[in-house]
Amino acid sequence: MPDLILLRHGRSLWNDLNLFTGWHDVDLVAQGEAEAKVAGELLAAEEDLDLRILHTSLLTRAIRTANIALDNANRSWLPVRRSWRLNERHYGDLTGKDKKETAEKFGMDQLKLWRRSYDVPPPPLPEGDERANQHDPRYRDVDPAKIPMTECLKDVVARVTPYFSSVIAEDLRAEGARGGAVIVVAHGNSLRALRMVLENISEDEIAELEIPTGIPYRMKLDEHLEVISAGYLGDPAAAAAAAEAVARQAG
Known about the structure:
- By secondary structure, the protein is α/β, with parallel strands linked by helices.
- 41% of the residues lie in helices and 13% in strands.
- α2 packs across α3, α4 (99-106) crosses α5 (108-116) and α6 crosses α7.
- The termini are far apart.
């Protein structure tokens, strides 16, 4: 039976500054590095878990989290696949803006609509905005029309689902047959999209799902990639507290 591990990157610089990050590339802070180290220790403690292949986004905070975690899980040698489809949701014109200041300017109801509604994106980046990603070399092989100027969760589900179906699912079937597991290190919204698809979470329920940073979520799947059981590794209370901390970031 295959195992799928989902891990949100550790705390980043813009998490510390309480800014909307999205596709903007920032590094981990010391706390995020520590979270990644603990994540690796939690993975290593799972005696029946045999990690075989890693998937990450193209953003530094996910890549560094994966590297630190796997170093501490004695799996630094894993083969790696990376894809822009696992990137965080693009926050459009909110990118780089303070979450509390945005709440004060537009109101909490509007902020929650942008942050947590399924199909309402924030305002897009203006044409020619320096925050746009079309000229970033990491996306040189991506059709420019597919690079977003803003996204809602529905858009993230639309780009993550085909990557899961065509790439991650094939790795799960192959490694499951060999008794191995697949790990995906990505972001709050790309992981929410994966969980929504795999756990059949409704559009209303997904709005309330918070993904804590740096805590591995283990999903045991059957041969049809249906979820048998799932849960965070380590202390459940710690995972709940970390998820609540994420929820409080908007003030």
